[in-house]
Amino acid sequence: MDQLLFEIVFRRGLSTEEAREELSHRGFELRFAAVEERICEIRRCLSSRQLWLLSSGKTMLDSIDGEEEGTSAVEPADPAPDPESLVTLRETHRHVSVALASLADSDRLLIRLRYQEGLTLQQVAKLVGLKDAQTADRRLRDIIDHLRQALGIQHLVRGKPKPVSV
Fold this sequence. Notes:
This protein is an all-alpha fold. The chain is 60% helix and 0% strand. Helix 1 (2-11) crosses helix 2 and helix 2 crosses helix 3. It starts with a helix and ends in a 15-residue tail after the last helix. Residues 59-66 have low confidence and may be disordered.
């Protein structure tokens, strides 16, 4: 009965009175106060996150296994990339690895600190002995430009063009 009550009140969003009527149609004769007590007890068993998910409509209302009459089984999507995407990813990884290997050790260190370790420009500058964050930023931009040229993708880059020195 509690599962049915959960379905009626929390998943379908019916009121307590509507829930009592639904229960009586299904053979459960309860007073209004008893239905209210059962709803309160069910609510106490739910976490605040579960209550939020139920109230925001982020629950799955369809049966996933298709046990209900007239429904077909829902086939969950495979999150793994398809074989063509895997080949493309591997090829891209190989090209980027070769381009990174062509960099000087100091340049690879700058890339690693900034993008793999997630350090700020100021932290990177301090660690490698550069003057300031702006200098680190300029060095990183130059390294990235070199990588773009090595990968042949400089024409795909959008944004403001680099200013030309006088």
